[in-house]
Amino acid sequence: MLHILGGLDAPTSGEVSLLGERMDQQSAVAQGARRNEALGFVYQFHHLLGEFTALENVAMPLWIGVQLGKRSLSEQQIHREAADMLGEVGLSHRLTHKPGELSGGERQRVAVARALVTRPTCVLADEPTGNLDRATADGVFDLILRLNAKSAPHW
User: Is the Cβ–Cβ distance between 33 and 18 less than 8 Å?
Assistant: First the structure.
């Protein structure tokens, strides 16, 4: 269901619109650009790229946005945004560590930071704490709620 909502899979019937535009009427590149600007994904398994550091994993959506022409950021700005988001999830001291050097909870917090670094309109989460022990899961869940409250508009 989350893949259909996120435009990763096409529905067998009906339609999916994201920010008022039907996903099935867009090219794959346009769909990717729309996802990059509007959605964040957090899965039960972190899906981090093992050959990249925590900073590089979090910076990836920003780099993609630049490559798609949807963001205008320098390399320095991208690294600063990614480092700031890792700071928000309590991992400022782990920027240069690769996923294999991080605990399960740290990897999941990197995944949360990656999902939020573009400041998406919506985050789609599929059991983001399912592989974590209770205390770590509670911490990740509280983190998501805190970051949501921090970035939500104040009416």
Answer: no
Residue-level pLDDT at 152: 55
In angstroms, the CA 118 to CA 106 distance is 20
SS (H, E, C) 29-75: HHHHHHHHHHEEEEECCCCCCCCCCHHHHHHHHHHHHHHCCCCCCCH
| pTM exceeds 0.85, yes or no | no
Strand boundaries in the chain, DSSP class E: 17-18, 21-22, 39-43, 122-126
Cβ contacts of residue 137 below 8 Å, gap of 6+?
Answer: 129, 130
- In the chain, the percentage of residues whose pLDDT exceeds 70 is 94
**Encoded tokens for 71:** 């963001």
Buried b (16+ CB within 10 A) or exposed e, 47-68: ebeeeebbbbbbbbbbebbbee
